[in-house]
# Entry
Amino acid sequence: MARSVDWDELPAAVREAVERHTGPVAAATPGPEGMSTAVRLILDTAGGGVFIKGTRPQSSRLVREQLTLGAEVAPFVPSLSPPLLFRVQADGWDITGWAAVPGRAADLTPGSADIPKVIAVLAELGTLAAPDVPGLWSIAEIWGRDVDDPRMLDGGALVHTDPHGQNFIMDGDRTWLVDWGWAARGPAWVTAMRLALFLMEAGWEPADAEHALASVPAWAEAPPSVITAHAISSVPSWEQAVARQPDNERLRAWIGLVRAWADHRDQTAGGTPLLTHGRAEGTPHHREKRKG
Ligand SMILES: Nc1ncnc2c1ncn2[C@@H]1O[C@H](COP(=O)(O)OP(=O)(O)O)[C@@H](O)[C@H]1O
Ligand SMILES: [Mg+2]
# Structure
């Protein structure tokens, strides 16, 4: 987790570009922790709170692309994402501004009262078609190499591949889902499958996590053999990630649950062995390597 750059540390040209949209900034407080973006601040303005998220000149290309994709996709999910208010670029910085919403991260631990609300968000997301925006990844392209028939991973739904607790904001009766920079086009069950892993990370047994998702239609209707094939095929790629970052404790814990889930799928869901080959280094599973 990286701390955000402070408002005062931003170049004057960047602050001026933001204030052209927000009016004078009375105060700025660091937003909750995130992983990739250099700037995450809540600005106090006469018009209300504005959450800014952005990249700096040194930010990697991947992080810049995520910022762009997040800004492109959010307007297509107005019921799930806080509104994007503006995007400004100055001195190599790239800043998106969003209506700040109050609330806290979702608690994904077993028994949490947030679970039904999070599940409801997934059910809604499963009904949305992927928008036609340039940077959207295709799940079949990302994961298709590991199954006999990549067409099984085809789909036209909008997929959020990173639905962990901090990317939900529990705001009274509303539940927001933010951080669309990892969005993709694919089968709608993929978002549910990713959530199942985050539930397991929060302490759920694999069978219970899968059961909790039963009311998400896209998950209930998903072909079990394809999910099983994906569960098993993702293990080597995570093992490679751990080998590259042996000191990353969260990643080490993650590989444990990825293996446990693959074993569970293998034993209970069975399914046709669609798996063909191990995953080569550098295949698009690198999109999963960031945890945050
Ligand atoms: N519109 C918003 N209003 C208030 N807080 C937000 C808003 N959008 C995101 N956040 C908070 O900021 C955190 C980081 O934002 P996020 O978009 O997830 O960036 P990152 O890519 O750094 O994870 C989120 O986990 C959430 O808690
Ligand atoms: Mg995030």
The pocket of magnesium ion (ligand 2) is lined by residues 34, 166-167, 179 (CB under 6 Å). Confidence is low (pLDDT under 50) at residues 271-292. The CA atoms of residues 136 and 184 lie 5 Å apart.
